[in-house]
Amino acid sequence: KIELEKLASDLKSSELEKENLRSEVTRVKEAHSSVESMLQTYKEEVDTLNEALRIAAMDIAEVAQGDDSLADDEEDDEFDDHDDDDDISKLTHNENDDEGTKNDDSYYSA
Hints:
There is one protein chain. The chain has one helix at 2-109. By secondary structure, the chain is mainly alpha-helical.
């Protein structure tokens, strides 16, 4: 009879241990699932940030290219201004030539 009671006690103890182990397995599975979910969220966030970084880099490159174009245009304008001065002096010179010719024509027609 003592042996039977000891076996019954051992059985209860084993069942409690079995239930505790099942609870532990469930808790570990839930923790693992939670970690996997967080990991997936972080991966998606990294992808989003990488995409935002790529877009920002493209925007910066586009602005830098625009600045280079603007600087080139300004350099071209400097050269154009110089050319305009030459054009104005040519026009002024030609107008003087025309006036001189008119004066010469009037001299001959008089």
